[in-house]
Amino acid sequence: MLVAALKNFEGAMIFVSHDRTFLRGLGSRVLELGGESGTDREPLVFPGSYAEYVERAGHEAPGIYA
Q: Phi-psi bin for 25: left (phi > 0), alpha (psi -120 to 50), beta?
């Protein structure tokens, strides 16, 4: 219900979530902080959806299971 309601929002929003369904349902860009090692100083801005990010990276976002 939350994802459906937020899809209708016409403004900008920033969210942080570990919920893959939420990320796939709403994200239009990905900002990865820390990179693969978790210590990269430069953020990665990926201009596609979370699903496209996972496809390009070949795996889910790092640091979730540590």
A: alpha
